[in-house]
């Protein structure tokens, strides 16, 4: 009997020991698993934090400043929100554009000058923007004009090329376009602008002094070759289809100028208006707020002119070359 009791006790002790062993093992496994999970969570959090830091750094590098010049363009990143491709604006100025919308482009030729500062202030006050067709010779005159050029770009306007000299006798000797000389002036003005605005800046928007339409009117024999030169260099000429008359050669009152604007843009959904910010254009400075208010009341959106992308220009040129080869 005592042997049976002793045997039962011994078996009971073994069972208790085994249960304790299993309990301790379970606790150890739970602790080990918990540590493993905590470690994994910690590592995941650390990895996520590291990834977030890397992404933040990348965004700092990738995300440009709105006031920075878009590489290879004539506008800033901010201005790209309301900029239109020069090829489309060219069609608008020629009244051949088929697209929708109601747009107005305020364009100013022959600056910068002292008038430019007042025009920039008006644009800022009215919260609209324009496109400045500048002269290389005017930019070079003094540092003040160079600051105006910088401010034009920084405040969200577009910069375009209007030649260096605006001298018809040099550009159009004998009333015929001198292509080599004209392109020398275009490139010289671009070089001057780049030296002031930075190497990222590039302008491929042109307004010929006197306008492309005038060359057509005179049946300039150099135009066809000039068109090819512009296309090869990705340059788009943009004329106008409305004006305030500040360069018409006769005096206008500000009321007459406003009426001229209304008359020349009547019935047009896409208006490219010619004005000047050269010295002595005080009436344009004076009438500009009313011109802006008029177009606002008529429901126009204010746009600026940007370079046609090189990719689009290359594709257009390839298409033209195919057309020529098939003839």
UniProtKB/TrEMBL annotation:
SUPFAM superfamilies, alphabetized: Glycoside hydrolase/deacetylase (SSF88713)
InterPro entries (alphabetical): Glyco_hydro/deAcase_b/a-brl, NODB_dom, Polysacc_deacetylase_ArnD
Residue span, NodB homology domain: 102-303
EC number: 3.-.-.-
Transmembrane segments: 20-42
Stated name of the protein: Polysaccharide deacetylase
Keywords: Hydrolase, Membrane, Transmembrane, Transmembrane helix
GO-annotated molecular function: hydrolase activity, acting on carbon-nitrogen (but not peptide) bonds
GO BP terms: carbohydrate metabolic process
Record bears the keyword Membrane: yes
């Amino acid at each position: 009997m005592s042997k049976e009791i002793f045997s039962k006790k011994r078996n009971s002790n073994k069972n208790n020991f085994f249960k304790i062993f299993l309990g301790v093992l379970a606790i150890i496994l739970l602790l080990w698993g918990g540590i493993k999970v905590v470690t994994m969570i910690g590592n995941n959090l650390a990895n996520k934090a590291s990834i977030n830091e890397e992404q933040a750094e990348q965004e700092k590098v990738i995300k440009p400043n709105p006031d920075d010049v878009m590489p290879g363009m004539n506008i800033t990143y901010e201005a790209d929100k309301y900029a239109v491709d020069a090829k489309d604006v060219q069609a608008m100025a020629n009244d051949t554009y088929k697209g929708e919308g109601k747009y107005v482009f305020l364009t100013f030729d022959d600056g910068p000058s002292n008038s430019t500062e007042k025009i920039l202030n008006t644009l800022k006050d009215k919260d609209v923007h324009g496109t400045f067709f500048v002269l290389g010779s005017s930019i070079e005159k003094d540092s003040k004009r160079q600051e105006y050029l910088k401010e034009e770009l920084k405040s969200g306007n577009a910069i375009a090329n209007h030649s260096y000299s605006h001298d018809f006798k040099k550009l159009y000797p004998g009333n015929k376009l001198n292509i080599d000389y004209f392109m020398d002036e275009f490139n010289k003005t671009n070089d001057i602008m780049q030296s002031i605005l930075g190497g990222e800046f590039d302008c491929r928007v042109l307004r010929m002094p006197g306008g492309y339409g005038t060359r057509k009117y005179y049946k300039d024999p150099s135009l066809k070759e000039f068109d090819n030169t512009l296309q090869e260099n990705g340059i788009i000429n943009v004329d106008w289809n409305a004006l305030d008359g500040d360069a018409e050669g006769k005096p206008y009152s500000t009321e007459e100028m406003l009426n001229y604007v209304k008359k020349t843009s009547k019935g047009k959904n896409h208006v490219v208006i010619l004005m000047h910010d050269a010295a002595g254009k005080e009436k344009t400075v004076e009438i500009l707020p009313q011109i802006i208010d008029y177009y606002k009341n008529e429901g126009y959106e204010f746009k600026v002119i940007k370079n046609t992308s090189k990719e689009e220009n290359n594709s257009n040129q390839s298409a033209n070359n195919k057309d020529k080869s098939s003839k």
